[in-house]
Amino acid sequence: MNGTMKDFVLPTVVLAVICLVVSAALSGTYGMTNPIIEENKRIAEQEALAEVLPAGDTFETASGALPDGVSALYTAQNGAGCVVQVSPAGYGGPISMMVGLDAQGAISGVKVLENTETQGIGSKVMDASYTEQYVGKASADEVDAIGGATISSTGLKNGIRTAMEAAAAVGKGEK
């Protein structure tokens, strides 16, 4: 081989080997950490269920097709109510949240799981001091929006409305 061919082939082979080693390391790391990540998600989900519907004991996931905008619906095995996971649109994107509804259909809790709302403005609707205002209410409209965060507030309210509609539909045997 002449010098130019060697200067081209050797770095290419070295780069290919480095890519293979790094890819194998990433794959191995993913394989080892993915079960831990999934278990942590499951634990966080169970904690959120207990937080938004404290009277619930164990929860069963609703089977079958869910209404539009609903990610999951869980029913408390002791008849205390249900929890609906929804992702309504906010100002910065979807707001992933869980809404607990007691057996009478009143809001028992609201927990925002993930959001991309503007920090310090739209993110105020995620604060417990705001979401706690919904507890005991029969409608999302009973709580005022936060000034300057109307789109985020409306997104949260829309999520609660969607959860209430889904719970009512499942309660009637609809899907």
Features:
single chain, 175 residues, 3 helices, alpha+beta
Unreliable stretches: none
The rough form would be described as: elongated
Strand content: 15-25%
Helix content, binned percent: 40-55%
Side-by-side strand order of the widest sheet: 1-2-3-4-5
Say how many strands there are.
5
Indicate the mean pLDDT: 87
Describe the model:
The protein is of the alpha+beta class and 175 residues long. Helices cover 43% and strands 18% of the residues. The chain has a 5-stranded antiparallel beta sheet, sandwiched between helices. β1 and β2 form a beta hairpin. The longest helix is centred in the N-terminal third of the chain and has 50 residues. It is elongated, with a radius of gyration of 23 Å. The model has no long low-confidence stretch (mean pLDDT 87).
Write a brief structural summary.
This protein has 175 residues and is of the alpha+beta class. 43% of the residues lie in helices and 18% in strands. The protein has a 5-stranded antiparallel β-sheet, with helices on both faces.
